[in-house]
Amino acid sequence: MSSREPSSPKFRLRLLPVLVAAAVTSQAHAADLWTITQDALQNNSTLGASRSTFQSVDAGRDVARGSLLPQIDATAQVAHNNTLESQSSSNAAGGSGSGGTGTGSESSYNSTSASLELTQALYDATSWAALEIAKRETGQQALLLQADRQQLLYDVASAYFEILRANDVLEASISQEKAIKRQLDQAQEQFDVGLVATTDVNEAQASYDLARSQRISAENDLQVSFEALERLTGKRYDSIDALSDDIPIESPEPTGRDNWIQMAIANNPNVQAAQAAVDVSQAEVEQAEAGHKPTLSAFANYNYSDSDQDYLDGHNADTQVGLQASLPIYSGGTTSAQVRQQTYSLEATQYDYEAQRRDTTQQVRSLFTQVMNDVESVEAQRQAIVSNRSALEATRSGYEVGTRNIVDVLDAEQSLYQAISDYADARYTYVTDMVELRQQAGVLDQDVIRDLNQWLRETKTVTLRLPEDGGMSQMEDIGERPTMEESSAP
User: Fold this and answer.
1) Consecutive H or E run containing 488
2) Which H or E element spans position 447?
């Protein structure tokens, strides 16, 4: 064996982290929100189905238009004919013994025939109404496609920032576990020399076990968050860019709630699609009413026939040009019933439009209020970290001089890291609420995603950790990570 191929298992175990680190270093740059959004627009199955549905409905316009264009039909026939004729007669003047005479003939011949017919609708209200329905349905489906596209943009942004949220919660859990582990070690050392009672060690151990379980749960949430993003794009991402700490937390522009409501009524594709459904139903009423109207069409036809019978020579041909009109007089009340049916359908779509308009208005109002509260919440949570850190330092000092017990210290530790998690949660809630507000207002597009992407930074990434990859399941791994106090204190 070559000296470059060490066989020692211990050597291989030491070499493995180096190889893993080298592999991570050689990986491509982490994906950002813009890249993932483009992947979703190309690969998302729901959006793909919506595109195909639009194309199918759009093709319906050509189907409806076809009945208004010239119709040409041609037929031809070639046949072999076999004719048998048999005739007989009786002697009417004879008696019972009289007889009759009979004759018969058989002939075979070939025949050919052909016809060509052209028709053109001159007035057909039903077909014109069908074309108008197809046009309006195409416009409605285009709006539904736009709604699905905006929904996908929101879903991708929401899933992306859910990963960042889960990662920040995980980092806070890791830092909390690490801090409580130090507290547990300190309590154990003090117990060993007789400075504290065993209850202090038990309290610290209980807090450490709780922190460890919370960290494991946070790891699972992070993995699930990556999987949700993969479902939207059909691709797996091992790491993504994190959000900059200095992203501005500002009130939405325009600042008036009524302005956002007006924007939503004018631009929300779901509201517009509901209005388009009313237009489609109105056209369907007109189509049903057209059943009472006459139709007028022009026609021209040419017929040719030929055969080789013995007693025939030559061929026959005739041409016909004219107009044809028809007027429905009575069809058992079907047409009138169809008019009533479509009128009720129109009324239903009008109610649906009003419901969609009210629902969108309520959604915009709630989201606008939520975003305004998010702005204040982020600042309040930021200040809560400062306050809880000061409280923790004071509690630790009190514990050292004997005025506070270890339970107070552990509670203060948990309060601090809970505040850190709440601050991260408030930031990402603000971002996703702003994106959803734009979606409900109908102004969520790729420009919004591009602007948001500018606040992501490549210098800090969030990496998917799977259990089979080593994960974060050992305290040795926790000890190598910076604490939230060191890496993300506001």
Assistant:
1) none
2) helix 446-453
Tell me which residue has tokens 């479902």.
Answer: 231
Name the 3-class secondary structure at 477. helix
pLDDT of residue 104 exceeding 80: no
Q: Give residue 182's pLDDT band: very low, low, confident or very high (50, 70, 90).
A: confident
Give whole-number Cα distances, 15 to 5, 119, 379, in Å. Answer: 12, 84, 46
d(C-alpha 43, C-alpha 231), whole Å: 10
DSSP, res 254: S
Name the residue with tokens 């064996």. 1
Beta bridge partners of 112: 78, 306
Residue with tokens 């004997």: 402
Pairing between β-strand 239-243 and β-strand 100-124 as defined by DSSP bridges: unpaired
Q: Which of 425, 316, 333 is nearest to 374 (CA)?
A: 425
Nearest to 436 by CA among 150, 242, 225, 240: 150
Q: Distance (Å, rounded) from C-alpha 4 to C-alpha 15?
A: 13
Q: What percent of the chain has pLDDT over 70?
A: 84
Reading the block at residue 152, the tokens are 């996908």
> Would you say 269 and 143 are in contact if contact means Cβ atoms under 8 Å apart?
yes
Minimal CA–CA distance to 39: which of 224, 226, 234?
234
Specify the pTM: 0.81
Identity at 45, one-letter amino acid code: S
Tell me how far apart the alpha carbons of residues 212 and 222 are, in angstroms, rounded to a whole number.
15
What are the residue ranges of helices labelled H in 112-197? Answer: 125-192
User: How many CA atoms, within 13 angstroms, populate the side-chain half-sphere of residue 96?
Assistant: 0
Buried b (16+ CB within 10 A) or exposed e, 86-96: eeeeeeeeeee
CA pair distance 429, 129, nearest whole angstrom: 49
Q: For 241-257, write each residue's pLDDT tens digit.
A: 999 988 999 999 988 89
Closest Cα partner for 345 from 289, 293, 277?
277
Pairwise CA distance, residues 276 & 438, whole Å = 22
Give the separation between CA 349 and CA 340, rounded to whole angstroms.
15
Residues 445-464 pLDDT 10s: 999 999 999 999 888 889 88
Amino acid at 308: D
- pLDDT per residue as tens digits for the range 315-331: 788 999 999 999 999 88
Q: What is the mean pLDDT of residues 106-124?
A: 90
- Residue 473 has phi, psi (to 5 degrees) of -100, 0
